[in-house]
Specification:
- This protein has 224 residues and is mainly α.
- The chain has one domain (8-220).
- Helices cover 70% and strands 0% of the residues.
- The protein is built from eleven helices and no strands.
- It has helices spanning 2-15, 21-36, 45-54, 58-65, 70-85, 94-106, 112-134, 136-144, 150-158, 167-194, 211-220.
- Helix 2 runs antiparallel to helix 7.
- The longest helix has 28 residues, at 167-194.
- The structure holds zinc ion (2 copies).
- One zinc ion binds next to helix 4 and helix 7.
């Protein structure tokens, strides 16, 4: 049962034909977590302890604010604020000022949502390597996919030993896929830039507006 909870989203993302299945999984997991911090996590003590300790990063505080539960967000911000407040006391020297700055900086941009979703992504990256070893059908779907964004490709490389005895085969396939995908994106960029060449002025073929956002996503992951 646990295995399927983990593998079902992977199957779904790989079959979608997207440019990074892990970005798809990330987006779904993140949306679920943001929903959770505007709902059941608001009043649950174990979640509140974590929120007080780590807070939310800019990106997630923006997403929470865009959500529908301002009261729930205010309750969490209130106790997080008190936790930050507790670090601030009068400074009697520059040394103390720097110490206080360091202490505040430790959790200035930490985030409960990032921590949870990063852990989830690590588990998904491991499961992908295991599925490659365990499921022949998955190997086929994997080899037909469009590669990954660079941050998620790095994660897959780091967790590639979870493919066990098939690690070498997995790496061969993974690096091949990734280069094929980058070649495709690079070629699309070249076609795009060539369209601005004066020799192509008046051409019936127009630059594809998806080219640049697709290239940004390939290099950086989901930033747009
Ligand atoms: Zn990605
Ligand atoms: Zn975050």
């Amino acid at each position: 049962m646990q295995y399927h909870i983990q593998t079902d989203p992977i199957w779904e993302a790989f079959k979608s034909g997207c440019d990074c299945p892990l970005c798809e999984i990330y987006a779904a997991s993140e949306a679920r977590l943001v929903g959770q911090y505007l709902d059941e996590a608001v009043m649950a003590p174990e979640f509140r302890v974590e929120v007080n300790k780590y807070g939310f990063c800019r990106e997630h505080i923006r997403k929470l604010f865009a959500g529908k539960n301002k009261l729930g967000l205010a309750l969490q911000l209130h106790t997080r604020m008190l936790s930050v407040r507790s670090v601030i006391s009068p400074c009697k020297s520059y040394k103390q000022a720097v110490k206080q700055a360091d202490e505040l900086e430790k959790t200035a941009d930490t985030c409960v949502i990032c921590r949870t979703v990063d852990e989830m992504m690590l588990r998904y990256a491991r499961t992908i390597a295991q599925m490659f070893t365990n499921e022949e059908e998955f190997r086929n779907v994997f080899s037909k996919s469009n590669g990954f964004c660079i941050p998620h490709y790095i994660l897959l490389l780091r967790e590639s030993n979870k493919a066990g005895g098939l690690t070498q085969k997995y790496l061969t396939e993974l690096t091949y896929l990734q280069n094929r995908s980058l070649d495709r994106t690079a070629n699309a960029l070249e076609r795009f830039t060539n369209m601005f060449d004066y020799r192509n002025a008046g051409s019936a073929v127009k630059p594809d507006p998806e080219t640049v956002p697709a290239a940004i996503k390939k290099l950086k992951g989901r930033v747009l």
